[in-house]
Design brief:
CATH class of one domain: Alpha Beta
CATH topology of one domain: Rossmann fold
Largest sheet: 7 strands, mixed
Structural class: alpha/beta
Number of strands: 11
Helix content: 25-40%
Strand order of the largest sheet: 6-7-8-3-9-10-11
Number of helices: 10
CATH superfamily of one domain: P-loop containing nucleotide triphosphate hydrolases
Order of helices and strands: EEEHEEHEHHHEHEHEEHHHE
């Protein structure tokens, strides 16, 4: 990674953390010491995988995501990034961690007055001491990766919603982040473009070996790229598993949520009748369904 400042900081690393990139333990969050939104969530997110957070409105998933990003300070519990607990980090250490994170916001959050190139370069301007030539090289590299070569000089208002999302993704990965957070990346997109964004996020996760965490309502994303799925309900972790485990899951609330449409219900019935647990043939992994 290009952030020279990281070489000058030493963190106390939990020796037990070898594979897990983000580990959450007994996370609780209350507002005004009254309303408890997160109620003791414990989970983990591995590197190189697409992790999805799903749940109905009011389930706590947005608060959970913002707690991971340290936008909200948890009331109790711990959040560890490679063994580094953000609850005990100094402000300086949090700034270092922030430079390791890429974020794709729900509305893309592009600067209207900046070109595509300038928007993508923004994290490099904020977190690195790279020269103009070095930043230009990295920007053009990710522009090519998200297939926006002919749009680099355009402004956000001059490109489509799907292209804006790709610009947001390019901006999020331009600094080679270890962690990639996405809030509703398919919001407002047509089904075809949503599939393009899903494929892109999956490919980038594997190519860059990031820990990718996506907050989503898109059940197509759940069915196709959900390598780890965390289902929240009323602030509690009610189920976790992967897309291959959804069909045979025994949690009624989860099934009612994921297979809420008549089409998805019929699809699930068809898959169960034909002993098919996934729409896509993946290499089998050792995963265990967990439910509270």
């Amino acid at each position: 990674m290009d952030n020279d400042c990281r070489d000058h900081h030493e963190f106390i690393i939990n020796p037990d953390v070898t594979k897990l990139m983000i580990e959450v333990k007994e996370l609780r969050k209350s507002f005004n010491n009254e309303v408890e939104v997160l109620k003791g969530i414990t989970t983990s997110f591995e590197t190189g995988k697409v992790n999805l957070i799903i749940g109905q409105s009011g389930s706590g998933k947005t608060v959970f995501l913002k707690s991971l990003l340290n936008v909200y300070e948890p009331s109790s519990g711990s959040i560890l990034f490679d063994g580094r607990d953000i609850m005990t980090m100094s402000r300086e250490d949090k700034q270092v961690l922030r430079s390791e994170i890429g974020t794709v916001f729900q509305g893309s959050a592009l600067f209207d007055s900046m070109t595509v190139e300038e928007n993508i370069s923004f994290p490099l301007d904020m977190f690195t001491n790279l020269t103009y030539r070095e930043k230009k090289r990295k920007v053009l590299e990710v522009i090519g990766r998200v297939n926006l070569d002919k749009a680099n000089k355009k402004y956000p208002s001059e490109i489509s919603g799907g292209m804006q999302k790709r610009v947001a993704i390019a901006r999020a990965i331009v600094n080679n982040p270890k962690y990639l957070f996405c809030d509703e990346p398919n919001s407002g997109l047509d089904p075809y473009t949503s599939n393009v964004i899903d494929d892109l996020l999956l490919e980038i996760t594997r190519e860059y070996n990031t820990t990718t965490i996506i907050n989503t309502h898109d059940m197509n994303s759940v069915m196709t790229i959900g390598e780890k799925i965390l289902y929240l309900r009323l602030g509690i972790k009610e189920w976790e598993g992967d897309k291959n485990m959804l069909t045979t899951a025994k949690n009624k609330n989860l099934i009612d949520f994921v297979y809420s449409s008549e089409l998805f219900k019929q699809l699930r019935e068809f898959m169960l009748e034909n002993d098919q647990t996934s729409l896509i043939n993946d290499k089998p992994e050792d995963n265990n369904e967990k439910t509270n």
